[in-house]
Design a protein that fits this description.
Layout: E1 7-10, E2 21-25, E3 34-35, E4 46-52, H1 61-71, E5 72-81, H2 100-107, H3 120-134, H4 137-144, H5 148-156, H6 160-166, H7 171-177
Length: 188
C-alpha cells in the first residue's frame, strides 16, 4: 500500500531515514525526529501513521489510539500491531499483549480494515525459541536432543525430570516467558 503525503512512525527505534516520514520515539536514536512520550502533533497532521510492536509498551493503549486518531487525517492509513503470545521484553515497560479482541476493541470504532495474523509456525517458533533461549545450557542440550513427540508426551504426562529441565530458568526468565499470569488478591 502506497502512503502518500506525510507519514508518522510511532516508536521508530533505529530505522532508516525516509523522505516524508517523521520518526517518533521516547529514546534518542540518531534517526529520531521527535523524542516524546506523547504525540505532540496538531490534529489531522498525518496522511498515515505506523506503530509496530509498540502498543504492548504503552501504559494506556486507549490513549495512544485516541492520539493517533486525533493526528491522522480523515481517510488516513493506520498500520499498527502488537505482540500477543510473546515473551516479556523492553523491561520494565511491557504492559499489554493484545489479542485480536483487544485490538478490535481499540480500533473498530474509528477504523476500518483487515486484521492479519502470524501463521502457526511463526507463533510456535516464537514461543519455543524464547523458552529454549531461557533454559540453562545443560537443560537446553537435553531438551534439544528430544523428538517433538517425546517432548509432547513428557509434557502431557507431567514427567518430573522433563518438568525440572524445562523449569531450569532464572526467576526473571520464568516470568518473562510465561504465557499467562493469574492474580488473586484482596481489595485494600
Amino acid at each position: 500500500m502506497r502512503t502518500p503525503g506525510l507519514t508518522l512512525v510511532v516508536g521508530a527505534g533505529i530505522s532508516p531515514v525516509v523522505p516524508n516520514v517523521i520518526q517518533h520515539d521516547i529514546s534518542d536514536y540518531p534517526n529520531i525526529d521527535v523524542i516524546s512520550d506523547t504525540l505532540p502533533f496538531k490534529a489531522e497532521s498525518f496522511d498515515s501513521v505506523f506503530c509496530e510492536n509498540v502498543i504492548e509498551h504503552v501504559p494506556d493503549p486507549y490513549k495512544l489510539v485516541a492520539d493517533i486518531t486525533r493526528i491522522l487525517k480523515a481517510g488516513g492509513i493506520l498500520g499498527i500491531n502488537g505482540t500477543n503470545l510473546h515473551f516479556t521484553h523492553g523491561f520494565p515497560s511491557h504492559y499489554f499483549n493484545p489479542t485480536e479482541f483487544g485490538m478490535r476493541r481499540l480500533l473498530d470504532q474509528e477504523f476500518e480494515g483487515e486484521y492479519n495474523f502470524v501463521d502457526p509456525m511463526g507463533s510456535m517458533f516464537t514461543v519455543m525459541n524464547y523458552n529454549m533461549i531461557a533454559l540453562e545450557p545443560n537443560a537446553r542440550n537435553i531438551i534439544e536432543a528430544m523428538t517433538v513427540k517425546d517432548l509432547l508426551q513428557g509434557m502431557t504426562n507431567r514427567d518430573e525430570n522433563l518438568h525440572t529441565l524445562m523449569c531450569s530458568v532464572s526467576d526473571v526468565a520464568r516470568r518473562a516467558i510465561s504465557t499467562n499470569i493469574y492474580f488473586l488478591g484482596r481489595k485494600v
